[in-house]
Design a protein that fits this description.
Distance between the termini: 41 Å
Strand content: 5-15%
Oligomer: single chain
Largest sheet: 7 strands, parallel
């Protein structure tokens, strides 16, 4: 009889320490202000990341993984040997975890909230936010600048005695100073000419938080343009310690990420009232002069599936 696994079987559970819980409570008003209304689940994702980062019990991701393997029968059934399980954690020697947030549920808010609390508490001196494209970079910077200009959020952090109450939002075209948040696409990290990445972060990774947006690209076997992303995170020149990966598709091929500590998936977003993600109203087949129907669409899809077999999974969307 085969064993059926669910994604929730592999989400890592933490035993929360009082110190970590107190810190999450300290920033409760800030998170309420940042993550309002239907998007209150964002605060839970932020708080869970902060709990892990400040935990003394879990010195690194391996410690958390070992504890979960010992307690989780489904994990033991899938990975009988602990070594086989740990081999699936390339960043296990660091404090590195993933958060699943369905597309459209506000990953930008979560990235910003984690960055601001880590800086405000003085747990890190700098934040490096990495993403796979210039378009995403510009979108993140626009949102971060808007958040940073919010008077209510600024006031709360000042009242809490933030070490870095209002960080600069920059990219790698300028020096990244203490208290700054650098938002950059991963390609600029590799092109060191004109970039301040090395000067700003070399040897300072223990006091730097790295946040990876659309983090499934880190583990992609197909995307050659981003395959160096993991090498950068592991680079001993930087020695990064705190890493959070955020994505709506936490999969390596068909396998769910094993380092997820918080999950708000597509189904959860659809089931909220009202839904955060709109349900798809599927097209009914038609045959008119303007519409060639599903036959041609299916044929194109079949051709693409064969053409990209083993590399990509084509998706055909009919609107």
């Amino acid at each position: 009889m085969s064993v059926i696994y669910k994604n929730t079987d592999f989400v890592l559970r933490m035993q929360v320490e009082q110190k970590a819980e107190n810190l999450a409570a300290k920033y409760s008003a800030y998170l309420d202000c940042l993550c309002a209304g239907l998007y209150a689940f964002q605060r839970d994702a932020i708080a869970q990341a902060i709990r892990f980062f400040v935990s003394a019990k879990y010195r690194d991701t391996e410690a958390l993984a070992r504890e979960n393997h010992a307690r989780n029968l489904k994990l033991q059934m899938r990975f009988e040997r602990i070594g086989d399980y740990l081999d699936r954690f390339p960043l296990r020697r660091k404090k590195a975890v993933s958060l699943e947030l369905a597309t459209g549920t506000g990953k930008s808010w979560v990235l910003y909230g984690i960055a601001r609390i880590m800086l405000a508490e003085g747990l890190v001196d700098k934040v490096l936010v990495l993403c796979p494209s210039l378009t995403i970079e510009e979108g993140l910077k626009d949102k971060f600048n808007r958040f940073s200009g919010d008077a209510a959020l600024q006031r709360i952090l000042r009242e809490l005695g933030a070490v870095y109450p209002n960080p600069g939002i920059k990219n790698a075209n300028e020096p990244i100073l203490a208290g700054d948040v650098c938002v950059e696409n991963i390609h600029a990290v590799y092109e060191r000419t004109g970039s301040s990445i090395v000067d700003s972060f070399k040897g300072k990774g223990q006091r730097t938080l790295v946040l990876n947006d659309e983090a499934h690209h880190i583990f992609s076997e197909v995307d050659g343009a981003t395959k160096k992303w993991m090498d950068f995170l592991l680079n001993e020149e930087f020695d990064f310690r705190y890493i959070a990966n955020v994505t709506g598709t936490p999969y390596i091929n068909d396998d769910y990420f094993l380092d997820v500590i918080y999950r708000f998936g597509l189904k959860q977003a659809l089931e909220m009232e009202p839904p955060i993600i709109k349900k798809i109203d599927y097209k009914i087949e038609e045959e008119t002069q303007r519409d060639k129907g599903f036959a041609e669409t299916w044929e194109n899809h079949r051709i693409n599936r064969e053409k990209y077999a083993g590399k990509l999974k084509p998706i055909s969307i009919v609107i």
